[in-house]
Amino acid sequence: MSRLRRFAFLFGTVIGAARGKGKRERIVAEGSPSASSELVVVALLLLSAVFAVGFIVVLATGRWPNRTQYEGIALGGALGFMAIALILVGKQLVVSEQLSEDYPQAEHPQEQAEVSQIVRESGSRFTRKRLLRAAAGTAVGALGLAAIAPAIGLGPALDPYELNWSPWKRGKRLVSEDGTPLKAADIEQDTFYTAYPEHSSRNDIAAPLVLVRLPPSSLKLPRSRRRWAPLGIVAYSKICTHAGCAIGLYRKPTFPPVEPRPALVCPCHYSTFDPADGGKVLFGPAGRDLPQLPLAIDRAGNLRAAGNFSGPVGPSWWGVRIKGAITRER
Amino acid sequence: MSRARVLIAFALTGLALAAIAHAELPSGISRPSDERGLSQQQLGAQLYAGNCATCHGIAGRGMLEPGGTRGAGDIKGQGPPLVGVGAQAADLYLSTGFMPLSNPHVQPWRRRVEFTRKELAALTSYVASLGPGPPIPHPNPSAGNVSEGLHLFTDHCAGCHQVVAEGGYVTNARVPVIKSDTPTQIAEAVRVGPYLMPKFSRKHISDRQLNSIIAYLQASKQPNDRGGWGIGHIGPVPEGMVTWLIAAVALVGLCVLIGERLRA
Q1: Do B34 and B115 have their domain in common?
Q2: Nearest-by-CA chain B residue for A258
């Protein structure tokens, strides 16, 4: 008990000393009081506190439906009312004033001019200015060319062929998602399959394939690809040539006479490709055909790649479509 | 108003009414006047003749070219053969209201089913009797695994149907929402592949995997919308629109409200 009393006494003296210290005569007259504004601010702050406490209550007790929403309302209310209170304080209670002051005149204009002259004249040791300028120009120019080179690399002038690289080579087996080799006999009509290269990374953009089987009589492949679709099974890159989405839609007619023809469709922007016609673009923003992978069937009946894709896999860029350099057949 | 104008107005109103009347095709189907005296086989055959044969031909032989005669609703019939499709396909198309179709050139879409239960059963068994075909499947979603179902649905279905089965579009067709389908109808659709949908055999999606897909679809009917408003459950596009068109506008408005222009 005595300890508590001693503490209260100490506290009282400290507070009293602090309050007595600042008694100085005012320079500016006291601002006109606005009791009503102060009251509104106090009310808003208390309301904010109520909402904040409400948040704690909901968090602690809430097992009711839409708890997230009540929490949001409580926290939002607490922050919102606090914000309104602060806006009111700023607009109505804090005294604000805008004043501007001109820069003072320079005190020693003569000396300032001298200093700048000294700086200008000191430190010049160049004797062959032109030669140095030419060397600098060469360096900057070469660096600029180096910066543009990757863009030129897209076109016919400088073709590093990296775009055509894929994990698919002649003889590579096609496996399903669980890694089992795909047999030609398992591939049915009117549906679609996803396939990957055996023993290769599936993260490579050129790895995934979409596989469909069409009646061989309905195929309209170019002459050079006549042998690419054994038993009517065709394989295309699963990556759309427009923006690189996975082609996850296969539309197949149930009754072809009155329904749209089979097509592979990209779900992102509805680029539509014709699997019977070498992946030709039927509709949508894709600028070039879907790259086709030549297929072969080995003696065991497994599906194997018979070479690389007909063109580079993945999204297109400007210019690539026009030049046609990248989509050429190899 | 001149007399001619009145006449034109009358004519236009008449045309509009005629168009409305025409658009409202008789929802009805044709049924025998007295069904009680017929056996199931007879009832099925009569319903088939009255509602299906215009397009699917006599005894389900199909009509690959438009038929010469005009059937109900003044349409020229044309449709695939039904021999061998089995009870599976018949039950799917009839129980969803996909069939009968008002016109062979439109996409089958979920509609109110006009047939009674008894008529459905009779018609389904009649179509099944046209040739040996798959029976109505009996999926068991409670044996399925929701997590595996999500994985399989994402691989095979979500491209068209969207990840929580909200439906969407494929070029030239609409893709239906799957929320109101029964497990049996989902299983039938996977095996049959109605309209432009691919079909998936047991070799491709096993019955066990199908149970998981259906279990996932049932779970996805009530997505847990933590944010309160699902905005159609179709992902970042509507979410972004709400952010930019509602939240950003509100913030700019607030800035205008509380800010003050600096006096130069």
Answers
A1: yes
A2: B105
